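Annex B. Sample input.
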Amino acid sequence: DSRYRDEMIRYATDTYGREHVAQIITFSTIKARNAVRDAARVLGHPYSVGDRLAKAMPPVVMGRDTPLRYCLEKHPKHEGGYQAAQELRDLYESDDELRHVIDVAKGLEGLRRSTGIHAAAVVISKEVLTEYLPVQRKPEAGKPIEEAPVTTQYEMHGVEDLGLLKMDFLGLRNLDVITDTMALIRLSEPEFDIDRVPLDDPATFELLAKGDTTGVFQLESPPMQQLLRAMNPSTFEDVSAVIALYRPGPMGVNMHYDFADRKNGRKPVEYFHPDAREVLGDTYGLMIYQESVMRVAQRFAGYSLAEADNLRKACGKKVRELMEKERSKFEEGCESSGYGRQLGKQLFDIIENFADYAFNKSHSFGYGYICYQTAFLKANYPVQYFAALLTSVKANLDKAAGYLVDARARGITVKQPDINVSDVDFTADPEHRLIHFGLSAIKGVGSAVCEKIVAHRKEHGAYSSFHDFCMSVPTECLNKKGIESFIKAGAFDSMGHTRQGLMLVFEQIIDDTVGRRAEADQGVMSLFDSIEPDPVQGGFDLDIPIPTTEFEQSLKLKFEKELLGLYISDHPLYGHEASLRRYADTVTAMLEEAENGTIATIAGIITKIERKVTKKGDPMAVLQIEDLHGGVEVTVFTRTLQQHGHKIADEAIVAVKVRVNRQVGDDRMTVSALEFTPLALQARAPELRLNLPAVALDPETVANLKEILSAYPGEAQVFIHLGGSRVLRLGAEFAVDVDRVIPPLRVAFGVGVIR
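Annex B, continued. Sample output.
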């Protein structure tokens, strides 16, 4: 649990002694792109020179830069980078000044730029640490050095080489989610224990096989979801294998899909030698773990267990020099064992391809166990799981928005923040498939303030009005910026106040309230407070009246998007589903399934615009386009931007013709725009059609429906689709204001109630 990592380190320090425990330092080095920028700046060139050279470099592949020397000189391990660096070589050959910049940058590349603290590693020693290595304190800005954590001055490989015990104290957000989900489940199932759930749960494996893993530890990226669909995992061992395979090494030789195809019978299981069946039978003839490498080394190269373990360490340490030393030994061993040097070379090539990122089996099983637990919770307790998941990312609105879309797609209703219902964090109502938005997840509102507001409400009861709220909560909760966020997010809607009305007077009410409370604290009685109200005349009302005017729906939704990360009470596209279907031939969620080169048209709202420039300095843009099924990032290249740029605006509703792009050997998808068509959607039709099957219309549901329809009178006639061809038309007394009635209907009956 990431919230207790510091506590774990303190425990280790208290147990073994302050002079025996330290965190481990990390060194960040100057990468190739930064090197050319730094060199250009130091040599007195304008920023544009370094930027031009940096943009001429090959793209980063699987997190790796191509070293500058291999951009200029062909090397078998960097052929792709060399081919992509033609522009850089042209600049190097044609311009002496640029050649000088690159030559200086080659000297800078790889130098250490700064230090950090390893995200997990802690060293524990029997003797005082300074008997083995130097240590230091690494203070944070503005904090005294005495409070700074103690770190080694050697990085982790040096610490290991000294023979010291290196432990990983890895704080995982997903463990927070598991803990919080269990707490929510135990409200109704007190005996629930995630460590006792079956490892063969059908619902869990169905979810994994569908790639329905948004929010599942290690498995939520689109390429991973695609691999899961290809893998069709059916055992816990399959989950572990997915973790081990989805790494740059195995992926570099397409081993991840090779494994999936062999497992599911799409390819025959082949062994590089018949004797390999006994050591690689459970992984379909493939080496996917460090232990696989060890067993092959023992069986084919005659390694002892200790020698095989040294080979495993060379794989795990990510030190290529060690791997090179092992190659000749391995090939000679294969020859001595009677398998031949050629087979040894072939095997070691496979080993080397994924040596940098090979997992050991226990590591993969440990991660796989957390994967399985989170998948189990999502499959079997989705409401509680999403509530905990949303709490874990409440500081990241973009991440939370994606999870909220997934929750809604599962029929879970996420209710807007409510000062009288919401807790500090997201809470679950599994019986009604509801999640109540956490107050602390509203942008601009602090957790400490929310804790005090909720604590007062739980002790003294609900707040009856905004005035009562201001008079009741601790004065430190009346920060105007925070109250403004509450108002715009709709947290006071249930009191009957309009958001615009509160925005017009809330500052005045707060000032008045703070003044009156200060007077009361000082024992000063207001003149009017001492007069008994006249019940006949209605008495004196010192509360400042709150206007009843309201913002336009579009502005309300804009505020919600700004403060909550997405639209909660309504959506700009609700009511226009049929129109969107006329313009689009697919939805954003389906693009993940599309093959390379697929041309499709989506329709939705532009929620984010990021302007950029290409390597050549030409303008381009990256957009986030959302429909009612999710969202997708769309790249608009220069030519399309020149032709259609005037149609691109924040909150614009558009149809976009797009192309799906996938690189060979890379599962990642990019989407590029080809054409834009602005959609002038007509106002919502003067009728409202609801999906309410006859079997669901019990007396309580009918009463609830009548109450909601009566509360929002208007001109739109209401039709209820009862199932099949049966449609019930309600009388004129139930005509409604469509824009105002849709949000409460969706809250009461789910998103799918609107036809």
